[in-house]
Amino acid sequence: MKSISNNSTSSERRVRGRLKSQRGSALLEGALIILPLLAIGFALLDYPLAIFIQNTLRNAVREGVRYAITQQTGGSGQDAAISSVVQANSMGFLNSADLSAGNATITITYYDKTTLAASTGTGSNAQGNICVVNASVTRAWMAPLWRSTGLLTFTASSSDVMEAPPGGVLPSR
Description:
Blueprint lengths: L1 H69 L7 H11 L7 H6 L2 E8 L6 E2 L10 E11 L10 E11 L12
Antiparallel strand pairs: 1-2, 1-3, 3-4
Helix pairs in contact: 1-2
């Protein structure tokens, strides 16, 4: 019996020794696995957010063009009214602070219906002319892969043909 107990204690010692030597390996393997998993997890959050921002910006310029072609801007200038519609539909991604800091832009361009040249001044928003609304916003990004550049720029554009103004009177630009 004594020999059996000696064998069991020596095998127990071998198992304990093996567990102690594997403890460092488990820590290293855990570190090597958890870092890529965290990167993938954050990417799974970042990419949908980027897609959401892009789609929101596209919707905002689409709404701005829809508003522009109906020419129902009221007393304010048409371009200012279109810009405010784009801002209102951008869910805060195109805000006044970004516009004044130069991190965002909203441009409204009218093109002549016959020559397709850019048209400015009185009558540029006449019936049949093409209205193009562009918007862009630059955002700092969270993803470690994009930190080297630091910023992502989202842009969207939409266009449509101007309708006849209500009452036949063109609004001021």
